[in-house]
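Hi team,

Filling in the usual template for the complex we talked about on Friday. All components are listed, including any nucleic acid strands or ligand strings, so the model treats them as one assembly.

SUBMITTER: L.P.
PURPOSE: interface mapping
COMPONENTS: two
RESIDUES: 440
SEQUENCES:
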Amino acid sequence: MVKKIYFQSIFFSFFFIKEAFAAESGGMPQLNPEFWVSQIFWLILSFGIMYLVLSKLILPKISNNLESRKSQILENIEAAEKQREDSDAKLKEYDEIISKSKLKATSIFNQAREKALKDIGAKREVLDKQIDNEISEAEKEIDVLRKKAPDKINKIAIETSSELLQKLIGAEVNNSSISAIVDDLSKRNGDKYYGN
Amino acid sequence: MAANPMSQFNVYRIGPEIKVGAFDISFTNASLFMIISTVSILLIFNLGSKKNSILPNKIQLLAELSYTFVSKMISDTAGSKAKPYFAFIFSLFMFVLFCNMFGMIPYTFTVTSHIIVTFVLAAFIFIGVTVIGFTKHGFGYLKLFVPSGVPAVLLPLIVIIEIISYLSRPISLSVRLFANMMAGHTMMKVFGGFVISLGIVGGWLPLSFSVALTGLEILVAFLQAYVFAILTCIYLNDALNLHH
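RESULT (copied from the run log):
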């Protein structure tokens, strides 16, 4: 039902349009030459003025704007490139400085170590010498003491033996004869008593 | 009046009748829309070129994009020799585009839907291109009608065809734009009339057509302006760089 009405109305509308066409006189207003001259005149006037203003005033400005933007962007890119190169060079310099200072630091460390080692060696030598000296002095003293020891022991032996004899026998004995005996004994058995 | 799809193309006088000699140059609705188009073009591009900021605002971007669009179109089709004619082709493209687009607004008048307007533009282009061709190449420009590598037997025929095709350029250029605009607007009017006559019941179908057609017509409006400009470039290319 709705469909039928729909198509019918489309059909009638064609009639309607046809009637409208028929009612209007002459088909296309475009072919009516009444206003042709007016249209040509106003077209030339408006288009001509627009062309003059655009070509003399506006378009050069736009092209200028575009050019200046282009050049500015190029300049900025160049500046950025330059700065990057600069920073690269600086980074290289910095790296060099770091490596140089590292080398320097190791050399300083090595020198210090060598010096310290030398110092230690020299001090050790001095100390060694001192110790050697002290040892040799002590040995000398010991030697002296050792050399003196038999005489003292002999003296003690002579005195004790003379006193012993006095108490035992009650008579005084000549010291010299005792010492001769002691000497004789110590000569015979000296190695046994004082040997190392 | 509303029912006739052709009544939208009527030209009528606005204000008094102005006559210069035998000619009637009264201000009409066509003149009004020509002036509206040119004034809006000048306004937009003046605003778009006023400030020169590195980061363009919307209107500056619009102006600059149109500039590069047209300049690329010219350099692609006519080469670098066509640079002096850039301003003319740019104004031509913008004028046709704005006239077409203003015609898309309901109750407005489409300047380019009148054969006399498009024909004057096309005839001007034709005469200009011919003059440029003859001044650049002298009588050598006539070589345009003699394509190279054609057998001698066919040559008379080919030359005649070439001359006819050359002479029909202004007609084809003007009729293409005029017919496209007229047909599109007539069709939209017809479908609009259907919506009214079918009413609330059946009007939805032609209404949807009307919506789709509006989109299509906007596309056509742009496309025809583009075609008009690019054909001008091609004709200019023939006159500047004689390739035959």
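MY TAKE: Chain B touches chain A through 61 residues (CB under 8 Å). The helical segments of chain B are 29-50, 58-78, 86-102, 115-137, 155-167, 169-202, 204-240.

Thanks, L.
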